[in-house]
Amino acid sequence: MSFDTQSLIVAFPVSEMAQLESHREQYGAELPLAPNHRRASAETVKTLLGHDDKGDGMLRAGISPTSVSARLLTDGRYAVAGHWSLALKQAWENGEIQAEILTPAQLQTLTPQSEI
Amino acid sequence: MAILAPHSDRAVQEYRHRSGARDTYWINELVKYVRSQGLYDSFRLYPFMPRTNADSGSTAYGLGGLTSNDMTLVNGPTWTSSGLQFVSSSSQFGSISDFLGSETLTVFARVSHASATPTAVNTIASQYDAANDERSWLFNYQGNVANDPYRLARSADGTSAEVYEDDGADAGTTDRCLVAQWVDGGGRSLWVNKTGKTLTLSGGSEKTSRFNSPEPVVFSALISGGTPANYADHTAHALAFLTGTVTTAQRETITDMINEL
After folding, report:
1. DSSP labels for B134-203?
2. What domains does chain B contain, in order, with CATH numbers?
3. Which of A9, A53, A54 to mutate to test the interface with B (most CBs of B within 10 A)?
4. Which of B26, B145, B148, B221 has the greatest number of C-beta atoms within 10 Å?
5. Do the chains contact at B91 and A34, CB–CB below 8 Å?
6. Which residues contact B245 (CB under 8 A, 6 or more apart)?
7. CA B137 to CA A32: how far, in whole Å?
8. pLDDT truncated to tens, each residue of chain A (116 aa)?
């Protein structure tokens, strides 16, 4: 299993967020763009993040410009949620990458109310 | 097994092929109805049940002549047997490239809120970029104020807005078709299924037109200055847009059919 079985909300500083895409080659693993079993030829890509979008334990690739959006927090960091590659998780646990796991309550506290 | 309606409309056949939808019976009935009323080219439907759409992946396909734009699903909302589930803590939302002008707009959103007592703003749908002064319209479930009212906002110039709210009496998790409408040259209305709600001005000043924003139409979030916020926790069955004048009978029939999807 190349990806965490748990979905985690992770906060990255701006500097790390900007680097995240470049970590894809080193820490990423292959996932299909869409685990749609009607389409056997679903393209796979190397990604840092997967989403279980059917709730069946199968992951779909997450890090791509159209399928992932980071949440800007009040402290200037960005939060992204999903099933992270275990290699990337190891890297932040080793201190190679700055990242902090947030609880949903912490995320809510750090989420700005958008102007209406 | 695919559930096919007899004499499927050609647009429904194309939709079934494109999306992989297995059950298009009520989609077909709805499309036949809007065609019969001359509304097809003003209408766009996004069904969200696994049997009525792709059932996986990051595209929710749509049909109807108003636009050919499909919805991009961001951050992996889940295709559940009850519909497409959006979770705010995962920053999930759907985005459609702009296809609306400033004409009368009716938005049908069949959703089940995850909580009857939300604590944050839950955006149902919006095209309302405050940071770029490109506000057009906004439809919220105001979980951060007493009674959790629904809120409809509209701007005529992109900058200043009217904000109307109902009494919050319909807060709850029941599956319902919410219908929000902004009339060009007139007022705004909200129905829960077919029951009209009384709206009260709660902020800004009354407007009678809607700004033609170039920003994306967003489901389950608000995007301002390119930054998404105010995500919703809900499960969605369908979303539809209708532009131009619509009669009460047409609105109620479309509501009934969306509730069958």
Report:
1. EEEEEEEEETTSTT--EEEEEESSSSSEEEEE--STT-SS--EEEEEEE-TTS-EEEEETTEEE--EEEE
2. 74-258 (2.60.120.200)
3. A53
4. B221
5. no
6. B104
7. 36
8. 699 999 999 999 999 988 888 888 899 999 887 644 455 556 788 899 999 988 888 888 876 655 678 999 999 999 999 999 999 999 999 999 999 999 999 999 999 877 67
